[in-house]
Amino acid sequence: MDAKYQPAVSALQERWGAVVSEFRGEITCTLSPDTIIAAVTALRDEFNFEHFVDVTAVDYWPNEQPRFHLVY
Q1: Which residue has the higher pLDDT, 72 or 21?
Q2: Residue 24 backbone dihedrals phi, psi, to 5 degrees
């Protein structure tokens, strides 16, 4: 993981219980829906993230419930 992202990723893990994985240099932080607003607000206000690059959704029907997952 690039060292410049480590403080933000650590904060997501410690404060909001993010599950973190990395694949081919891309970091994924999985958060519960009730923590998203606080987490992205902290990323903006404390870690100077300025915008989302992508927002999409995945439909896992009929295998998972809830079936829709948002991906930021």
Answers
A1: 21
A2: 55, 40
pLDDT of 53 over the 90 cut: no
Which residues, in sequence order, are CB contacts of 46 under 8 Å at separation 6+?
8, 11
Residues contacting 69, CB < 8 A, separation 6+: 57, 58, 60
Look up the pTM and report it: 0.80
Assigned token pair, 47: 């870690």
List beta partners, residue 71: 56
pLDDT at 45: 97
User: Which residues are CB-contacts of 19 (< 8 A; sequence separation ≥ 6)?
Assistant: 29, 30
